[in-house]
Amino acid sequence: MRLRVKRTKTATHLYVSGEMPLEQIHKLKKALEDSMESSGTTVISMEKATNMHFSYLPLLCSAHKTSLGKGGNRLVLKGETEVLDKALKSAGFSRSRGCIPSSGKKTCLWVENSDA
After folding, report:
1. 32-37: Cβ within 8 A, 24+ apart
2. For the chain, what is the domain count?
3. Is residue 111 included in any domain, yes or no?
4. How deeply is 77 buried, as exposed, middle or buried, from its count of CB atoms within 10 A (0-12, 13-18, 19+)?
5. pLDDT score of 73 more than 70
6. Is residue 97 part of a domain?
7. What is the extent of the structural domain holding 52?
């Protein structure tokens, strides 16, 4: 897995490409931890990622829930998420609504047809 980090005044962009094996999950975990400490939004682009191990799913979910607890949806998945969709389907992580009660806002990264 290749992980490129780009910081702007308002966001940290994480660009993930290549295979996403379990042995390299620590790279994304560290990048997410560092990004969550900042005051901006974290944007993850996985358009060039392939074969995500299912262990990345709870990591992304946990990071998203942490971002919600810090005031709003500060974790955003950008662009095509085909690799995420495949991992979700194979792991049985489909959801039709978020995991936290909400007032019409998206509270789950992988709820279909949502607006986050």
Report:
1. 32/59, 32/63, 34/5, 35/5, 36/63, 36/66, 36/67, 36/70, 36/74
2. 1
3. no
4. middle
5. no
6. no
7. 2-91
Q: Is 107 inside a domain boundary?
A: no
Confidence of residue 116 (pLDDT cuts 50, 70, 90): very low
For residue 98, the model assigns a pLDDT of: 64
Enter the tokens of residue 92. Answer: 């049985």
- Give the chain's end-to-end CA distance (angstroms, integer): 25
pLDDT of residue 114: 45
Q: Summarize pLDDT for 23-42 with one digit per residue, the tens.
A: 999 999 999 999 988 768 89
Phi first, then psi: what are they for 103, rounded to 5°?
A: -105, 60
The answer to whether residue 76 sits within a structural domain is yes
pTM for the whole thing? 0.83
Strands 11-20 and 2-7: antiparallel
Do residues 27 and 34 make contact, with C-beta atoms less than 8 angstroms apart? no
The interaxial angle of helices 25-36 and 56-69, nearest 10 deg, is: 0
Residue 29: which CATH number? 3.30.750.24
